[in-house]
Amino acid sequence: MTVLLSIDGLKKAFGERQLFEIDRLELREGAAYVLTGLNGTGKSTLLRILAGLESAEVDNVSFCGAATSLSPYPRILREAVVYVHQHPVMFSTSIADNIAYGLNARGVAREEAVRRVDDAMQWAGVAHLRRSKPATLSGGEKQRVALARAKVLHPKLLLLDEPTANLDGAAREQVIALIPSLTATGSTVVMACHDRDLISLPNVERLKLRDGRLQARQNRLRKVV
Ligand SMILES: Nc1ncnc2c1ncn2[C@@H]1O[C@H](COP(=O)(O)OP(=O)(O)OP(=O)(O)O)[C@@H](O)[C@H]1O
């Protein structure tokens, strides 16, 4: 698989406190990764750095084979990287408008946008909610709408911050079931999480933050149920 993003010498500190120092981070096209580590090791911070929401020191960054930077965060990354927050914020318009927002902002033609929104709502199992107001949604429905809102943009890199946090039962299972199909459409996915069922999904590689370093390991075995 082709390398999508590689970063050499990634260091993050908050004031005097060095949070992590990563020699090399390499993400391949269409691959799925879980980013694990104890509370406070810097999982969310790392995702936020990749999304251009947090500054960091880096030696080299390469995206799709071309040298680039994280600061200033270039347009090529702004268009290719989508970050989904643990508690997604939504506009108080309809769910369909929320999902269409990013497409409209990118100037996608109306007919094409409507088609993509419809497809994404079907995929996320939220088509019945298209005229609902976000405030009325459950946590699981909100997370699925947030995933649909990210998927319509066809991101090259999708960053999910604890997508199943605060969910249980069917709501959690519905979110977990959506994850494999994200990589099937070509997106590279990185999920920060503590959820064992996400961590043990088949063909998901594990990136672990520990003692300020990043360790990589692949889950080759399929999940045993
Ligand atoms: N803006 C900030 N200023 C100072 N310290 C910060 C800031 N943002 C995060 N931190 C600190 O950096 C550390 C890592 O935070 P982060 O949220 O990235 O951890 P995490 O691994 O995602 O944790 P959790 O599993 O609990 O979500 C924490 O100690 C946090 O308090």
Automatic annotation (TrEMBL):
The keyword Metal-binding does not apply. Signal peptide: none annotated. SMART domains: AAA. It comes from the Bacteria. InterPro entries: AAA+_ATPase, ABC_transporter-like_ATP-bd, ABC_transpr_CbiO/EcfA_su, ABC_transpr_LolD-like, P-loop_NTPase. Keywords: ATP-binding, Cell membrane, Membrane, Nucleotide-binding, Transport. Pfam families: ABC_tran. Residues 5-225 form the ABC transporter domain. PROSITE patterns: ABC_TRANSPORTER_2. GO terms for cellular component: plasma membrane. One of its GO terms (molecular function) is ATP binding. This is ABC transporter ATP-binding protein.
